[in-house]
Description:
The complex is a heterodimer. By secondary structure, chain A is mainly alpha-helical. Chain A has helices spanning 2-13, 21-37, 41-62, 65-73, 76-82, 87-116, 123-148, 156-183, 188-216. The longest helix of chain A is centred in the middle third of the chain and has 30 residues, at 87-116.
Amino acid sequence: MIALLIRDLRLAFRAGGGFGLGLAFLLIVTVLVPFSVGPQSTLLSTIAAGILWLGALLACLLSLDRLLALDHEDGTLDLLLTAPLPLEAVVSIKALAHWLTTGLPLVLAAPLLGILLNLPGPGFLWLVSSLAIGTPALSVIGTFGAALTVGVKRGGLLLSLLVLPLYVPTLIFGAEVARRGAAGLALETPLLMLAGITFATIALMPFASAAVLRMGLR
Amino acid sequence: MSIWQYANPVKFLALSAKVQPTLWLISGICVVGGLVWGFFGTPDDFRQGSTVKIIYLHVPSALMAINAWFMMLVTSLIWLIRRHHVSALAAKAAAPVGVVMTLIALVTGAIWGQPMWGTWWAWDPRLTSFLILFLFYLGYIALWEAIEDPDTAADLTSVLCLVGSVFAILSRYAVQFWNQGLHQGTSVPVVTGGRSVADVFWYPLLTSMVGFGLLFVALVFYRTGTEIRLRRARALRARVGREL
């Protein structure tokens, strides 16, 4: 398991691995937002949390189609299917590697981008914690979508159509935590719901992803 | 005699051919009757005027939009557990019907909302949940279209339907939490049994709902039959191609 994780991480960090692509995407989205809605700092500070959450979600989506498709093309996935490791563990490791290379950098970079969008002071802590709690769910759900479309040629667009509706609850509660945090309101309920979604998806989605992968590769 | 004998496509087609004329007839009478009765035979509402009459189209289509997904969930489960091809094809056949019902509910709601709420669209929980349901339908249909091998397609779409159901319900409650609504509560609560609609509006509405339900069943029978014959035609063509 650890060998697989290290392999995935190494592939992501090396040239052409796409590490940092999501980060650059989020940066560009953040830069483009003031161009499209205007530079008024009051407006930006009200929408900052939502924009950063949406940007992080799209950045996660961006790297999903390489998550399993590359391994499928060069046959690694078939080897992993016959490996003694259960497929549920394989997809969990894949999701973890995806989070470490895409989700975690986004969490760490979010405060800097928050400055660009004039995020109010108390919002930083809650933006970072909501992203830290919520992005693992995005990775795990995304792995399910990637497993569904692994056999489909040019499945990128289909993947977004399948995964984005599944992201709705996570986005609602995550952005709600960040927004309430920025406005200084009580936020226990959405925070607990967000954590609940994350833990439930981590616990259950690998089974769905593995089942789908077995069906797709049969 | 058990319901499982209809997992045989031949028996299913025979049953479908037997019941379809009756189904079409009754559903046609109910839909047309319910709508005409509703539009011309009921008085205008005290506050809403004649706009209230769109309810005879809006409520039944919304009802069937949700029930169609529920039917797809059941048939997907049957496919995953018992591997009956008719079941998977019925789920495939129901999806486009469901998406049209969802669209009718959304459009009629918008047409009614414009004069009543003063807006075509509001990010109200019920409206938003329906829009999300619409997206789920689109993803489901797109996945069917994208995969060539029919058995793999049936497998993957079935799992998507199961997972999608969980997330659709989750979204429903998340959306309720996220925004307060404009949409009125249900006038016909099934659980408590009471209702706040006067009989004069209720009977045409009920007729229309029954009609839409039967129409959905008839359409699914018809479309499932088409899917079965399509698959037969494909098998025949493949066999002929081998012999040539």
